[in-house]
Design a protein that fits this description.
Order of helices and strands: HHHH
Strand content: under 5%
Shape: globular
Helix content: 55-70%
Number of domains: 1
Largest sheet: none
Structural class: mainly alpha
Length: about 80
């Protein structure tokens, strides 16, 4: 990804590029089909972004990840 994408993310979320890379490194070898791992990751992302995630939204996120409904080209989504 180029720096323009990170600039857009930082301006919208106030999350720094370094924090994004740190999070990415921490989940690199995690099993993303494991609901417990996903719940921890969701909590970590929410904390990083300073947002709360409702139980309902957490369930929707987990369902989308497990059923592979996540877009592959995220820089087009920003």
């Amino acid at each position: 990804m180029n720096n323009d994408v990170f600039s857009k993310v930082e301006s919208k979320t106030k999350v720094k590029k370094e924090d994004i890379f740190s999070l990415a490194r921490s989940i690199q070898n995690k099993d993303l089909k494991d609901e417990n791992e996903l719940r921890k990751i969701i909590k970590d992302v929410a904390k990083l972004a300073g947002k709360e995630v409702s139980k309902e939204k957490e369930e929707k996120i987990i369902d989308a990840i497990i059923k592979d409904k996540i877009p592959r080209n995220l820089d087009k989504q920003i």
